[in-house]
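Section: Multi-chain targets

For targets with more than one molecule, the full set of components is provided together so that the structure can be written out for the assembly as a whole rather than chain by chain. Components appear in the order listed by the source. The example entry contains three components.
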Amino acid sequence: MKYSAKILLLFVLSSSLMMCASPSRKAGEGIDVGFCISCHQERTPGLFQSWVESKHAKKGVHCITCHIDHQAATEQKAMVFPEKCGECHPEQLTQFWKGRHSIGFDRMQIQGEYLAIPQEIRSAFCERCHSIQNKCNSCHTSHRFSVKEARDPGACANCHLGPDHPHKEMYETSLHGTIYKLTQNPDRAPRCVTCHMPNGVHNSSFGIARGPAGTRSEAVDLKEVPISKEEVERKREEMIGICTKCHSRRFAKEQLENADQVKEEGFKLMERGKESIREIEKQGLLYPSVAERRPHPTEGRTLVLADPQLYVGTSHIERLFFTMFKFHTIRVWKSGYHFSPSYTHGHGWSEMQLDLIDINEEANKLKEIFREMKK
Amino acid sequence: MKYSAKILLLFVLSSSLMMCASPSRKAGEGIDVGFCISCHQERTPGLFQSWVESKHAKKGVHCITCHIDHQAATEQKAMVFPEKCGECHPEQLTQFWKGRHSIGFDRMQIQGEYLAIPQEIRSAFCERCHSIQNKCNSCHTSHRFSVKEARDPGACANCHLGPDHPHKEMYETSLHGTIYKLTQNPDRAPRCVTCHMPNGVHNSSFGIARGPAGTRSEAVDLKEVPISKEEVERKREEMIGICTKCHSRRFAKEQLENADQVKEEGFKLMERGKESIREIEKQGLLYPSVAERRPHPTEGRTLVLADPQLYVGTSHIERLFFTMFKFHTIRVWKSGYHFSPSYTHGHGWSEMQLDLIDINEEANKLKEIFREMKK
Amino acid sequence: MKYSAKILLLFVLSSSLMMCASPSRKAGEGIDVGFCISCHQERTPGLFQSWVESKHAKKGVHCITCHIDHQAATEQKAMVFPEKCGECHPEQLTQFWKGRHSIGFDRMQIQGEYLAIPQEIRSAFCERCHSIQNKCNSCHTSHRFSVKEARDPGACANCHLGPDHPHKEMYETSLHGTIYKLTQNPDRAPRCVTCHMPNGVHNSSFGIARGPAGTRSEAVDLKEVPISKEEVERKREEMIGICTKCHSRRFAKEQLENADQVKEEGFKLMERGKESIREIEKQGLLYPSVAERRPHPTEGRTLVLADPQLYVGTSHIERLFFTMFKFHTIRVWKSGYHFSPSYTHGHGWSEMQLDLIDINEEANKLKEIFREMKK
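Its structure, encoded as tokens over all components, is:
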């Protein structure tokens, strides 16, 4: 079907839709739905088509319901904030505010990495994902706003992937992910939302007692305040409650406790890397030294190992540690909980061991090469 | 169904097909279709089955239509060139000749990397993809020649992937790729052909003002001749024309201009890497020096940084730059245009910063270690 | 449908199933199927649902048929060994014993890498895959035991992936994998089982003349005993017999012989890496030296290059070789046979060349930095 024919069909379809949706046709500032559609079904046919197939269209939720009026849409660059969605979906909004997604943008803005780069680079990556704090269409993508799509692991994978948080990769290489991919049946194997947003709860921190930014071991709440041991245990029980749909309680508990151990072992390896570097610093052999380099945007002139360590302008030995901590340690322990042997080991544990070899040899070289010079 | 039973069924099916296709049954040098089929449906049942299900089979296009005769097929190793396909599909052939696919093999043959390796290695990788210049079945795979399959991102991904041109990976990790994967609906999100071969145009260079081999910033045509600023702008407008199916013109323009900025920032970082290495060369500290090593197949005894730099037999510091330029810079800017935050940042920008740390420290070490020796 | 409603439906379904399956209802030690189901369809509804949809359920194979009795299930952690499955599937079990899957756990237990790590780490990765020796549900996952799922490349990919054996990645980036992904039609393109378990044979070593652990070139049997040249040729013919379903015999033979050459070229590069390191060792420049480090769990105080080399506690130059041999060499040659240009080259050959540059420069640095000191 050619585009012109398609547009004609859409016009017919949308006319009937508008008739079905007539009670809501009149919108903010007296603008008729037809006002938007008369241009947009021709100028942005893809956008229009997605909306036409949405539950919104069927229920009479149209452009102006969310975008207020044409001028506001233009000035705000058409953004619609969660509070607007919450007018019709209040329960989901309240739950959303309890989870970590709701602080994504704020947390990004105080990160040293973010502060250290030009704005156009920030727009091209940091903000594309962290904007989840300010928009529901990160998961329920425009203008279809599909619940089915938002529940698919692909929706989560759009942000939860890559070197420093390969949740997508870990899940896809676990038996859970394998079976789900094969069967597309959420009763046969869990997908992300099964464990982290069970029964559609919009608090995505369900069942997880999260550590603070970095690698300290206490668990914290949304404001980074440590939570009680009882609360941690309650959250573990929440998670086990999900596992037991398919596994025995004993098995589930054992697996999660094994992951706790894997995490601890990973952190031990990481500490050995830190020790080597601290010793080198004490001997004045870091190049450039902390005093010689640009101060850290939030930590100033101190040696920062692990969060919020930067990937810019440090010494080679610190950069080796950055890779160890930021990419490999996280794979060891997060894959432990996501049951991906390939990511725990091949992309995690063995890489950490290789990192340690490199850090130790670099420390040794620095001693030989630069000790004389620095005297 | 057992194979023997299947072959029997195929025989019945193909007999009826041959009857339907009877006007074309007699082919080149008087050979009957049945001549091929009598052996090949038994000896190569998979090949036969693909053909039987093709539009070609339904239209009476059979073995000899394309392969001329049995002897020619054997001697030419059965290859069928685009000119042959163009006899029935002339418009597609003319368009194909306008795009970069049509110079893929020629360009490969003058590349230093290609010249530097044994023939069996060339066959096993370079030629598998670059042969697209000489065969339509790179995308329309044999012997089904499906249009539907050729339009799928998977068909493009067969070559456009991997460390130095991860188009597949960038697309799959963009919101475009995510939504297409979820919905399989090209009206909901673009796939490769939506932007690069819109409406089935076989010039795959649509909408792109391509830079020359390497990283210089002017745009060039198929013969590497610089094109005018107006032509570049015309091509940008072509692309925006695609974006506005779903996005506002302002948004589309802003996004592409932001990508332009990201590209520029990436190139700036790369230049800093080059500077470090050029200084080391001036000081005579490259090991092996350019004079000591095998001359570059096309550039001779000069320091080559960025295209056509080789990955063989250079110094360690140049190899660090090779990775920076060939793998990481390309991810920054190409992902900028493909809207993959993960590839622009996690696999690109942050890796470039880590590369710079390594290059600078290596430069420093070379100065300390080898200055004395070289005196 | 809410969970409570679903459970009710399952109860009705399972009641009817149990009636259909009545002749087998009474099981080991006189326990009725209902005994398990009365609890488990409520406590582990996902597990129950998978079983209910299985062929086992339809044929009256229930919990106790495999798990013997409730106490045994608890004590054995519910494991069911291949011998149990073989009671009903004897042919598959006999074939399974002929392939390498059947020695996976034994071989793992004598590996240096396995011996060098804590038990919880072993459980989290090594044993998850290598346990295939002891359980059929690695491929036919619980409790659906689907033949269709086990034949999908995804089932194999659950273990055959990652840095040191990226079979999944190589297949997916080959034209074979691309077409299968697009069409989901095993008559159009092969999947793993097409070549390695043709016609459902459970000997997964079909058609492959495997080298011993490491990189020596002779082919061996399951007990690592070298096999005759004739046997090797017979196995090559087995494989060509598969290829000719779609390709000419000449083409198939040529492609496999080209892969033989690619393998040889890859091994040659690797030998150059070994030579550099052996020379450094002779000169006493390895840090830590073999004498200073913890002895290798199976090889003692010798320099181990290639299998069974460890990734722990060696020198940096050996670690560079570890990556070259374990990750990159294997990609060159295995991708040669799996026809993935991206993995043979981008993730293999070019990485090996970069490794060689790094090894040579490191050797040079060690000579300069440590020669004086070691005197």
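Chain B has 21 helices and two strands.
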